[in-house]
Design goal:
The complex is a heterodimer of chains A (about 650) and B (about 150). The longest helix of chain A has about 30 residues, at about 200-230. Chain A is globular, with a radius of gyration of 26 Å. Chain A has helices spanning about 1-30, 35-60, 70-75, 80-85, 90-115, 120-145, 165-195, 200-230, 245-270, 270-295, 305, 310-330, 345-380, 385-410, 420-425, 425-440, 450-470, 485-510, 615-630, 635-645; strands at about 510-520, 525, 530-540, 545-555, 560-565, 565-570, 575-580, 580-585, 590-595, 605-610. Chain A contains 20 helices and ten strands. Chain A starts with a helix and ends in a 10-residue tail after the last helix. In chain A, the strands form two sheets. In chain A, strands 2, 3, 4, 5, 6 and 7 form a six-stranded antiparallel β-sheet that branches. In chain A, strands 1-10-9-8 form a four-stranded antiparallel β-sheet. Chain B has two domains: about 5-95, Helicase, Ruva Protein, domain 3; about 105-150. Helices cover about 60% and strands about 0% of the residues of chain B. Chain B has six helices and no strands. In chain B, helix 2 (about 30-40) packs across helix 3 and helix 3 packs across helix 4. The N and C termini of chain B lie far apart (about 75 Å). Classes of the chains: A alpha+beta (about 650), B mainly alpha (about 150). At the A-B interface, helix 5, helix 7, helix 9, helix 10 and helix 13 of A face helix 1 and helix 5 of B. Chain A: InterPro entries: CcmF_C (IPR032523), Cyt_c_assembly (IPR002541), Cyt_c_biogenesis (IPR003567), Cyt_c_biogenesis_CcmF (IPR003568). Chain A: Belongs to the CcmF/CycK/Ccl1/NrfE/CcsA family. Chain A: Required for the biogenesis of c-type cytochromes. Possible subunit of a heme lyase.
Chain lengths: ~650, ~150
């Protein structure tokens, strides 16, 4: 009953989205206020309908309604409640519904909070957002309907993939989708502005918060996914340059470029055409990401043939939106002549460099990701492009960004004197070189990776501090508290990048590992720590059986912690998982995994010493926090607050 | 495999994650040789896995390849010889770092090439922005020279 209603409201939402696409668009063209205003009602209605549909699917999962094919394939009655809920988006059809829900959510948010926009622009933004909704609702209804029933419901389900039964991964997709889909708002604003034929500082101010929000969510989503890979996969890898990961990384890089260039539009009315183009490309990469992850074309070239329908449909959506938007861009780019004048050395130029490096970095990731496909199609070569390639081809751009960032962030607008900024950064540079030299002296030779990473990291963090202190001017430290949040956001996010770089380079340069067979009671020495396997026991979990080790971690005679690495077996899915035991520290993680029992007695055990591991995700969190600080800056709150009194009432259903 | 990317990722991980990759019995007694073996195997792809190196993979084929790499090293091959040996048998598909030969120059040149193009456009743009005023830009040096030429005639 509930399920049928959910299916029905999804179809209704499709109809409403079609209405939302055309009526406000025509209204804005003809200047009919009623037609323009209809967009808001439609956007909110569409959100409520999709929301109901999503709730109905969740209801089916929570109540284990095994007459639904999707529930049978991805759930089990014995599964903990959290994973029954996360099971809704732990599969293709359900995650598509989540995607649509977020498209509608952003549309409704634009309708509610966009009351300070000019009516024609708002109508057009909602129309474009509606069109995106139409495309994905059609995709869902015609190729990936989550509400399909089974004629003969089975007694129980097949269980969710055990690897997905994890808190980190339960929240990873919603954040990632908020990011991916958030970029649809920037896209809608860009296309609406192109239709209007007008891009000005006000447009920059409206589009930036949406981009910033999308970027924050994307940052958190990627960090969660990477953190999950670290603790769940059993050897502590945190980034694999897999096509699926790259699919989320490319929009992140482009969104990073976009939110910087939008500042130039907002403050200096320059870089307009470029910013609009970036907004289009950013969403394009989101769509490419959806295509890569859902068609399977890049992870295995042959998977494309197994279900061409979905892949072709997504490719069609991509072609339609990118083709349409880029054609519009080509036709209207003339209208976007920039006003602001700036000299070669200025913050504007710094941001152009930022955009250039981030854009090229994203392009490198893109080429590497699709190259196996291109090589097979056009050159008849079956080859792989993996981690070693990306490490070599991508890293130089990150190094360049890191090196230029503190200088660019401190350059004044319009006209700057490089020497003056560089002088202020001398202490930061001295500190960075000192840290790098110290690290070089301390490490056991060979790799330059560690010292260079630490050099960059210190330079970035010290640069961010210098930037903040510089903003206080002669007013003294107490003025720090009164700085605009945007200044704090900038410093925190840039410092976060430094922290993240420190973590990544330390992990890659100084990780130590130990793989061996240990007997019960044996002690392994690793990087000055003693790791003792005391016992191994079997324990029953709610829907799994666990082989749990009891491991003591000690240093210099004193016990630090007792760790419980596990191997779990999920009987329903017939799949084992590894639950590594990690002792988190500020400067290092100790990571222990228990493997198989050996034929000759004893257990295989892997222990890792992972220096600065938590800095990777700490840095990502700092970046997200910096974004949030920036988003809460007064100039956006003032704009939102001013809109409140005039807000239209929410129409009843 | 038409599920969402996470599932794809997870399935791939499932093939490899739970069981340990490098087994204790594979490890060579000579630490220098073992380090070389690890370095080599990090650059070789497990053919039956999804974009994963044989060092991290637990597939049987990956184990066979790891043992093969170690056998060649013990036999006295250099690192390059070991890689050539494997590529000769399994094709360039095993290389996670593609060679720069043939059409692959496009792949390797894409980043630097794009950077140069971008730098060129960026510099031109900034130069033009640098001129004060919004009025149509004055004559370039070339145009100026040409004008002088015409006036002289």
């Amino acid at each position: 009953m509930f399920t049928e209603l959910g299916h029905f409201t999804l179809i209704l939402a499709f109809v409403v989205a079609i209405f939302q696409t055309f009526v406000p668009l025509i209204g804005a063209q003809r200047r009919w206020p009623g037609w323009m205003a209809a967009g808001e009602t439609a956007a909110i209605t569409q959100f409520l309908l999709v929301g109901f549909s999503f709730a109905a699917l969740m209801h089916a999962f929570v109540t284990s309604d095994f007459s639904l094919r999707l529930v049978v394939e991805n759930s089990h009655s014995a599964k903990p409640l959290l994973y029954k809920i996360s099971g809704v988006w732990g599969n293709h059809e359900g995650s598509m519904l989540l995607w649509i829900l977020i498209v509608a959510l952003f549309g409704a948010a634009a309708a509610l909070f966009g009351t300070n926009l000019p009516p024609t622009l708002r109508a057009r933004v909602l129309a474009v957002q509606g069109a995106i909704g139409v495309a994905f609702l059609a995709f869902s209804l015609f190729t990936s309907n989550p509400f399909l029933r089974l004629a003969v419901p089975p007694f129980d389900g097949n269980d969710l993939n055990p690897l997905l039964q994890d808190p980190g991964l339960a929240f990873h997709p919603p954040f990632l989708y908020l990011g991916y889909v958030g970029l649809s708002m920037s896209f809608s604003f860009a296309v609406a502005a192109l239709i209007e034929g007008r891009v000005d500082a006000a447009w920059g101010r409206w589009v930036r918060p949406w981009t910033l929000a999308a970027w924050i969510f994307l940052t958190i989503g990627i960090a969660l996914g990477s953190w999950w890979a670290y603790y769940e996969l059993g050897w502590g890898g945190f980034w694999f340059w897999d096509p699926v990961e790259n699919a989320s990384f490319m929009p992140w890089l482009i969104a990073g470029a976009l939110l910087h260039s939008a500042i130039v539009v907002e403050k200096r009315e320059s870089l307009k055409a470029w910013t609009v183009l970036l907004a289009i490309i950013a969403f394009g990469f989101s769509l490419i990401g959806a295509f890569i992850t859902r068609s399977g074309v890049l992870t295995s070239v042959h998977a494309f043939a197994t279900d061409p329908e979905r892949g072709v449909f997504l490719l069609g959506i991509l072609a339609l939106f990118m083709g349409g938007a880029l054609t519009l861009f080509a036709a209207r780019a003339e209208a976007m002549t920039s006003k602001g004048v700036f000299s070669t050395v200025s913050r504007e130029s710094g941001l152009v460099l930022n955009n250039l490096l981030l854009g090229v970095a994203a392009f490198v990731v893109f080429t590497g990701t699709i190259w196996p496909l291109v090589a097979e199609m056009f050159f008849d070569r079956k080859l792989s492009v993996g981690e070693p390639f990306f490490n070599v081809a991508f890293t130089p751009f990150m190094v360049a960004i890191g090196a230029a960032l503190p200088v660019g962030a401190m350059l004044p607008w319009k006209r700057a004197r490089l020497g003056r900024v560089l002088r202020k950064l001398v202490p930061a540079a001295v500190l960075a070189v000192a840290v790098a030299a110290l690290v070089w002296a301390m490490q056991s030779g060979r790799s330059a990776l560690g010292p260079v990473g630490m050099l960059l990291a210190t330079w970035l963090v010290a640069g961010a501090v210098t930037d903040l202190l510089n903003r206080t001017g002669t007013g003294g430290l107490w003025r720090l508290r009164r700085l605009p949040r945007a200044d704090w956001g900038r410093a925190v996010a840039h410092g976060g990048l430094g922290v993240c770089i420190a973590g990544v380079s330390a992990m890659l340069a100084w990780q130590q590992e130990d793989i061996r067979v240990v007997q019960l009671g044996d002690t392994v020495d690793l990087a000055g720590y003693q790791i003792t396997l005391n016992s191994v026991s079997r324990i029953e979990g709610p829907n799994y059986i666990s082989t749990m080790g009891d491991v003591t971690l000690a240093r210099g005679g004193g016990d630090i912690a007792t760790l419980h690495p596990e191997k779990r077996f999920y009987p329903v899915a017939g799949m084992p998982t590894t639950e590594a035991a990690i002792n988190n520290g500020i400067l290092r993680d100790i990571y222990v995994v228990v493997g198989d029992e050996q034929a000759g007695g004893g257990w295989a055990m892997r222990s890792y010493y992972k220096p600065l591991a938590s800095w990777i995700w700490g840095g990502a969190l700092l970046m997200a926090l910096g974004g949030a600080l920036s988003l809460s800056d007064r100039r956006y709150r003032v704009a939102a607050g001013a809109a409140k009194p005039t807000r239209a009432e929410v129409p009843a259903q | 495999m038409m599920r969402c990317g996470l599932i794809l990722l997870a399935v791939w991980m499932a093939l490899s994650g739970p069981v340990l990759a490098v087994q204790p019995d594979e490890i060579l007694s000579d630490p220098a040789l073992e380090t070389r073996a690890r370095d080599i195997s990090r650059g070789l792809r497990c053919l039956v896995c999804r974009n994963e190196n044989i060092d991290d993979s637990n597939a049987d084929l990956a184990r066979d390849l790891r043992i093969l790499v170690r056998e060649r090293l013990v036999a006295g091959d250099s690192d390059a010889e070991v890689v050539d040996f494997i590529v000769a048998r399994y094709g360039e598909y095993v290389l996670l770092m593609p060679t720069a030969g043939g059409a692959n120059w496009v792949l390797w040149g894409a980043g630097p090439g794009m950077l140069l193009i971008g730098l060129g456009i960026g510099v031109l743009f900034i130069r033009r922005r640098g001129r004060p005023g919004d009025e149509p830009a004055g004559l370039t040096e070339e145009e100026d020279a040409r004008l002088q030429e015409i006036l002289r005639d």
